[in-house]
UniProtKB/TrEMBL annotation:
UniProt keyword annotations, A-Z: Magnesium
Entry annotated with the keyword Magnesium: yes
Gene source species: Mesorhizobium ciceri
CDD domains per record: GT_2_like_f, MoeA_like
InterPro entries: Bifunc_Mopterin-bd, MoaB/Mog-like_dom_sf, MobA-like_NTP_Trfase, Nucleotide-diphossugar_trans
Source species, domain of life: Bacteria
MobA-like NTP transferase domain span: 344-503
Record's protein name: Molybdopterin-binding/glycosyltransferase family 2 protein
One GO MF term attached to the UniProt entry: nucleotidyltransferase activity
Gene3D superfamilies: MoaB/Mog-like domain, Spore Coat Polysaccharide Biosynthesis Protein SpsA, Chain A
Length: 536
């Protein structure tokens, strides 16, 4: 592949490096020029373009990414279609991610043009979460390099999502004088919540004295009817021959490992009896915060074996005391019907096409347009409506007097749409599962329309982008899941939600709401045609 400026006369078949305009026609980056395109550019006075010229043995970026992804062996994962030289791979079900790190390293060492990024080994994942991405850096790559990557992929499974299984778990809690029943009751609730996240079920509990014989007896009894037994000791293990490891052995089992290099979680005990797993839980497992117990429990529920050597290798990254990555991770997730959605209503623009008047203050049926839109947002199932102001801030706020909205002023509104998105999302509660971006100048959008988008988002589990459409064409509003909030924080200039929908690789649900999805009032003619009356 050759890359650089080339004369327009020889540009047929070349791939544009930058967006290029010919009169009213705009050619996007990565567009392959046809003879007709070249003629239009020449007529527009374009003498050369910066482009990539592919050699005979080159594969285009999408074809190369698709070929590599298609050669991979994986389980529990779905590969999305290639776009912009990228194939994203997503989990089909919640579970634990495993990866052949040596194979990934080998592919990434072939050439900088070919890259694969994945989650960390044994990372817990949710359904629909992206676990890996194949990205081709240039517009094309030599077929020999792609062949080298596919040869590595052919060696065996390269990664997998090991789905959680519906395991049955029996719990033993030992008791010493002074331990409160409320502590034991809370431990049960926390354990039930932990198991619920992975599809497990707590089926039985035994409370015994903190002594070897009764713990061994309870262990042997529970292991018969359960897939796993978890033992919470009233006193932390202080020796490898202490009550819990000794009880496992007395019951006829073996101790795989006592103690682990994860903090919190040091005092975990892992054993086996009759092919079933026995876990002596560390004291920190009484809390829902992440600890070493989670690492072992999740892997076992996902059907992965955990050996003494595996536990010994958990020290790097095992310091969790001051850097919890999943604070309160085991609290029960809200039901889909309870997922909270915030609305960010964009009202910061200058209405430049109107030639002076602010379109958001135009009257529709006697109400300012921005009031009408906010009123309908408040009438929806959304939990909060944030109005982003900028141009004529005080006039817009005055027009919304009496409405229960939250105002977020954007002093940088002239820098583009991205600044308003970031300003609005900053005011949403931390428990918001998603945000609906509502334009202030869409007079026909109703509360029912907004509710249909929210219902579709909840039905999809809160992981997909939901977009209003009209006759199969994308429109507004757009509802974005919380997983995109970090990406929104990195947007610049006049880039909005459409860019994220096109580049982040999430599933998109289009909801047909009719003409309301495409009716906005950017010009005086459009506003008056929609029934609006401009105010000076």
């Amino acid at each position: 592949m050759k890359f650089g400026p080339i004369p327009i006369e020889t540009a047929e078949g070349a791939v544009l490096a930058h967006s290029t305009t010919a009169g009213e026609r705009r050619f996007r980056k990565a567009h392959r020029l046809s003879a007709e395109d070249v003629a239009l550019l020449r007529t527009a006075g374009v003498s050369e373009v910066v482009a990539a010229v592919l050699a005979e043995d080159d594969l285009g970026e999408d074809a190369a990414a698709q070929t590599i992804a298609g050669s991979m062996a994986f389980r529990g994962i779905e590969a999305k279609p290639a776009a912009t030289g990228r194939v994203n791979l997503h989990a089909k079900a919640p579970g634990i991610f495993t990866v052949d790190a040596a194979a990934i390293d080998a592919i990434n060492a072939i050439d900088p043009a070919i890259t694969i990024a994945t989650l960390a080994q044994h990372a817990p994942v949710e359904k629909g979460q992206m676990v890996a991405t194949v990205k081709i850096i240039p517009f094309a790559v030599g077929s020999a390099l792609v062949d080298a990557a596919t040869e590595i992929c052919a060696a065996g499974e390269i990664f997998a999502v090991n789905a959680y299984r519906p395991v049955r778990v029996g719990v033993i809690q030992t008791v010493l004088p002074g331990i409160k029943p409320s502590v034991l009751d809370k431990t049960l609730r926390v354990t039930e919540a932990r198991l619920a996240r992975t599809g497990g079920r707590l089926t039985a509990e035994r409370r015994t004295a903190h002594e070897i014989a009764p713990v061994a007896e309870a262990t042997a009894s529970l292991v018969r009817d359960n897939d796993m037994v978890v033992i919470f000791g009233a006193s932390a293990m202080s020796d490898f021959a202490d009550v819990i490891p000794a009880a496992i052995e007395k019951a006829g089992g073996t101790v795989v490992r006592a103690g682990m290099p994860v903090d919190p979680g040091n005092l975990l005990v892992l054993g086996a009896l009759g092919g079933k797993h026995i876990i002596g839980a560390p004291g920190c497992a009484r809390s829902p915060k992440e600890n070493g117990f989670d690492w072992v429990l999740d892997r076992l529920i996902a059907g992965l074996d955990v050996t003494a050597r595996d536990i010994a290798g958990m020290g790097v990254g095992g310091l969790l005391m001051e850097i919890p990555t999943r604070p309160q991770p085991r609290e029960p997730l809200p039901a889909k019907s309870q997922l909270k959605i915030g609305i960010v209503l964009l009202a910061a623009g200058r209405s430049s096409r109107m030639g002076g008047p602010n379109k958001l203050l135009a009257l529709f049926d006697g109400k300012p347009l921005v009031y009408r839109t906010a009123e309908r947002a408040l009438g929806s199932k959304a939990s909060r409506t944030v109005v982003v102001t900028g141009h004529q801030r005080e006039r817009v706020r005055a027009a919304l007097a009496g409405l229960d909205v939250t105002f977020a002023h954007n002093p940088d509104f002239t820098d583009g749409l991205s600044t308003s998105l970031k300003a609005g999302i900053a005011y949403l509660p931390e428990d918001s599962a998603g945000v609906m971006i509502v334009l202030g100048d869409m007079p026909d959008i109703t509360s029912h329309d907004l509710d249909r988008l929210i219902d579709a988002f909840r039905k999809g589990g809160g992981n997909a982008v939901v977009r209003a459409s009209h006759d199969g064409k994308r429109g507004n509003p757009v509802l974005l899941p919380r997983s995109l909030f970090p990406a929104i924080a990195h947007l610049e200039g006049d880039t909005g939600a459409r860019h994220l929908v096109e580049t982040e690789g999430l599933d998109v649900i289009d909801v047909e709401i009719g003409a309301a999805a495409s009716v906005d009032v950017d010009t005086r003619e459009a506003l008056e045609g929609a029934g609006g009356v401009l105010q000076d």
